[in-house]
Design goal:
Chain B: This is Glucosamine-6-phosphate isomerase. The complex is a heterodimer of chains A (437) and B (359). Helix content of chain A is 22%, strand content 26%. Chain A is α/β, with parallel strands linked by helices. In chain A, strands 8, 11, 12, 13, 14, 15, 16, 17 and 18 form a 9-stranded parallel beta sheet that branches. Chain A is globular, with a radius of gyration of 21 Å. Chain B has 2 domains: 275 residues, 3-Layer(aba) Sandwich (Rossmann fold); 32 residues, no CATH class. Chain B starts with a strand and ends with a helix. About 5% of the residues of chain B have low confidence. Classes of the chains: A alpha/beta (437), B alpha/beta (359).
Amino acid sequence: MPHSLPSSPKSAPRAGRNGITKFTNCRILRGNSLVNEDLWVDSATGKIIPSQAAFYDDLILPDDVINLGGRILSPGLIECQLNGAFGFNFSTLLEPATYAKKIREVNRQLATTGVTSYMPTITSQRSEIYKSALPHLGPSGEYQLAEDGAESVGAHVEGPFLNPTKNGIHNVDVLRQAESFEDLEDCYGADNLRNEDGYRPAAVKMITAAPELGQMTALVPELTRRGIVYSIGHSEATYEEASEAVGAGATMITHLFNAMRPLHHRNPGIFGVLGIAESLPRPWFGIIADGEHLHPTTIKIAFNAHPDGFILVTDAMHLVGLPDGTYAWTNGDCTSGIVKKGPKLILEGSDRIAGSSITLIECVNNFLNWTGASIPQALNAVTSTPAAMLGLQGVKGCLREGADADLVVFSENVNLHGRSELVIDEVWKFGTKIFSR
Amino acid sequence: MRLIIRDDAGTASSYVANYIIDRIRHFNPTPSHPFVLGLPTGSSPLGVYRILVEKYKAGLISFENVVTFNMDEYVGIPRDHPESYHSFMWKHFFSHVNVNPNNVHILNGNAPNLEAECVEYENKIKRAGGIDLFLGGIGEDGHIAFNEPGSSLASRTRVKTLAYDTILANSRFFGNDVEKVPKMALTVGVQTVLEAREVVVIILGARKSLALQRCIEQGVNHMWTLSSLQLHPHPMIVCDEDATLELQVKTVKYFKSIEKVARDQGFEQILPSSIRTGPAPAPIPKTVVDEVQSPTILAPQPMTSRLLRATPATEYPVRSVSPDLIPDRMADRVGVPDLARRLTPQPEHQQQRLASVGA
């Protein structure tokens, strides 16, 4: 893991200062409740520090005491499926220097939406795009500085080992099947799947693939051995096939209900693995709460089926953050148009949903609004739950001592229906404020 | 001894907190002249800490130049254990105010040499110039700090084995498992508390009423260590009505009337000005050259005044002054007749003289 390594200073405090900030008079997210506690962060190490030990051992007083006036202090949001943002599509073939520059720009802007860690997602593409883009998308943990903004926790490759009948808007022509691990290496590039010398983690952190195609299910144990999450998605899998994949080590379902067979009473399909039937551990699952992909009640059912596995994702396209209109979209070889109207994205000349252009905090507010979930439940779906899915408990998505000091300050507004709505006031990365409203 | 009685725990705590704040502000502490505050843990002072924190947050008091010494700490539990007194102080007080960590002193129950830790603690108190105000609470058996019944009233900071009653009482903080409760503690001694220039004790609730009765209405007794407060020149006990249940009605009324009269007269706790403002900074030592013919027998100097600097017997509070008697001779008032006149007494002159004196 990058985070267990000694890391470079995240920022240099000014002379005569220790870089420690104390948040007080705030409600902080702890498990399923918001508690009134102080939080101490160190901008030099970028971590949340044990305040009592700092006081008694290091005889430290914070440089700054920030009174949040009762507002909510949450871990930074974690996004598991983001195809691009602010006009840049991660699935693009570009000169390495230009690509790296674009990524830095996206990272900085993405942080202003409250997302401090994310998985840049590449849709089904020809091999060359994976090989050129993935080296830029790997986890940047230890090299990341506060002012860099959002950090990648590893790339998510959604395809191309998908079922052509559940392709969504993925280009059917590039879809393929894997018979051996060499097929995966051939597609993504062997280096991108390898935890080189145990030092730098693999660029790819998650693979979405259909388990019923080729030998995919048999390849899952090798992926998990390499620390890569295998996620079931874009699949025609039956309940039995999905269960087999979970038994082999699948721990995630990509955008549950979308691009898979619906729940049928004679065969519950992929959704069925959320029942505790085969005494298998239940996987985590992504949910797109944008008002287009899923009916609010469907979201509620999924949440109640397995609250601890519930992860909100946006599946947003690079058009998020841009004005309405028709945008050209290069999908592999063919170019088509995507019509953006508010948060809606439709493939031009069809009624197919082409991803979303919603931000993660809008998904959180939708979820709060539709289901009456508590604020901690909604925030866990974008903080501690995805962190657990990625094996980053205690590092990301929580406010425990020793965790990264990625924070979001929320105001809580109550809307006309008496439901809470969260507004991002401030974003902190590694103990340094990088955005305020 | 002053006994301040308030209707309930809240107003009693508020009285103590305001008293401390008033003392600190009047003291006007500076980095070179800090206010030294002794602090307790336990349930009784919780309300006091809460109000002190509120007042700090309201900007009414600063603890920047306050040095603190805590009374006690368990032996053998990790410092950051949730039930350690380090954690208690952090949670209820230090994390909320601007006390400088360099000014905070709590006994280290994990010190490699506990005896040395205790000796050093006493030295630290001395180096800080002694404690200006020791705030305390008591146990049901009248113990102050961990000086349980039978503790020497001359005791100093030391390792103490806890009484079984105290272990039982504390087991509620350790999952009701007596085995998990530490059996030893480090604590300041009775004498350490008595050497503070002022001692304020808060006693709340009916459970403490017997202890209060023993300490107020009965004599000094090592079985109720708080009763040693009777030997202190400036002690104050603040309690709620519940804690007075065992006191005689007469006692309660007496102390209430004293407080009322004193308040009507416009003064509260009477403290010598040197205690109100702390000891003067040490004078710059002068080099003294002994005369050659110094006396061969040195006059013995009394030690007590230096050792008991906190309890100066020679100093009295300044009250409002009534004119002092200045003895003079009657002759100065009547005047002395001229020698010549006295030698030639004449009745007329004498008559005149008497008239002018105005007999």
